[in-house]
Amino acid sequence: MSRQVKPGSKPYRAQLRDRLAALGFPETAIPARVAENLVVECGIPPRTAWRLASELSLDVAAHRYNAATGDPRAGMRGTRIWEYEQWPERGVRPTIAALRVLAGVYGTSWRSLLGLRDLEQLPAKDLAEYHAEEEPVAVVPVSAPPARAEVRGEARPDEEIGASALDDAILLTQTNVDDVQLDDLWSDLDFLGGAYTRTAPDAVLGQLAVIDERTSALLKGRQRPKQTQDLLLVGAKCSAMMAWIAGDLGRYRLSRQLNSAAWLYTQYADDFLARRWVRTSQARVAFWSGNGIESARLAADGLSYHVGPRLTDAPLILAEARGWSSVQAEPQVLDAIARWTSIEDPDLGAGGEDRFFNITKDRRHYMAGTSLLSVGQASAALREFTTAREAYEKLSLEHRWEAMDPMIRIDTGRAHLRLGDLDGAAAQVEQVLAADVGSQPDMVHSMLKVLATELTEPRWRAAVTARNLAEAVLDAHASARP
């Protein structure tokens, strides 16, 4: 290749097409050569190789499959094609009938979609059919419903139709996981979600990593379809929680990688609640890593997945407000705060299976306050911080997130500064400085830095209290760095 690209990637395939065209290969012959290269040179399994050579996404391939059968409403989905591509290591074995349709979609023969490892796992009847059938000279790819006749093949005797159906159905009974294992995974996630407020983040992250490894190991085997979806949901939630915690530790690159993995899990699980988990985590990580607009957009997208009362809209609405506040987009912030106010339930706790994402009342009012403060609404922000403080102190110790105490005090101090009340600010901040902030999450360190900057603004330069306070805050910030 003229420049280094990842083998099998889209740029790689584009360069390969250009090379083949330069060698005089006609356009109709290029996909077969590309597929051959992907199999031989890149080690990509045949079914995946032919789909990539046809430049089709999983969903587009599924759409054309359904069109080729003459029924656009047929049940083929991108996730099922992905499962076909994972076989025989995992996934689902495609039937010969399914391979015939896919072959028509990709413009090849069904035998080209099977590699050596596939053949070793085929039922004897299918292997016999593989050897009995000659390769056709050429096959026209299916791109629209009129191609239906080209992929149906010759009529077969009635006794052959559905002959492998029982074998395929029996495969659905084979599994490497049982309900006890799934219950254990969910129970562990639930426990760690509740323990996070009172346990060192590194410790929780390490335990979640064990769950992630267990889930990945199970997914490499074979399960019933519903069990596979459950494992994908465990993977999505676990990865989203790990991303959230890694962000609290300031490890934002790892957070983004984990959230990407979580989102991929949700795509294959096809579950709205899982998408909400991940969008909540992504919005949080994006904000604290400095991308407020992206945070707001991720939160807004999360709200589009309606899941009922299990995971309320409040965290995502407030995340949207906070994201827009980073660029002082006052209309958007006030609109989001108004939407949150209209649904806020003062008695709503953060219990249940999703309490990790359903934030408590103190945190909800704190998020509202920080958003209002960023757009100049200091008095309204101070009211929210007062409510947040009251709610925090009413929580039992096991339900308090330790970081909320310094964060509420820091931003309450900032609100007092905006209102010209230096003594009020000092009273709040001095209580933060009296405690050890070295073990606090990364966002506490970030807010200390913001506070120090605001204390050195021109209006406070003549105030000895402001100078001393700024120095003390910077010292605390410096000592808190790892």
Helix content: 55-70%
Distance between the termini: 44 Å
Q: Tell me what portion of residues adopts beta-strand conformation.
A: under 5%
Largest sheet: none
Number of helices: 24
Spans of at least 5 consecutive residues whose pLDDT stays below 50 are: 143-154
The rough form would be described as elongated
Could you give the order of the helices and strands?
HHHHHHHHHHHHHHHHHHHHHHHH
Quote the average pLDDT.
85
Give the class from helix and strand content and strand pairing: mainly alpha
What would your notes on this structure say?
This protein is mostly helical and 482 residues long. The chain is built from 24 helices and no strands. The chain has helices at 10-22, 30-40, 46-53, 58-68, 78-86, 96-106, 116-121, 124-132, 148-151, 165-171, 179-195, 201-219, 225-248, 252-269, 272-288, 292-303, 314-325, 330-343, 361-374, 378-394, 404-418, 422-433, 442-455, 464-480. The longest helix has 24 residues, at 225-248. The two termini are 44 Å apart. Residues 143-154 have low confidence and may be disordered.
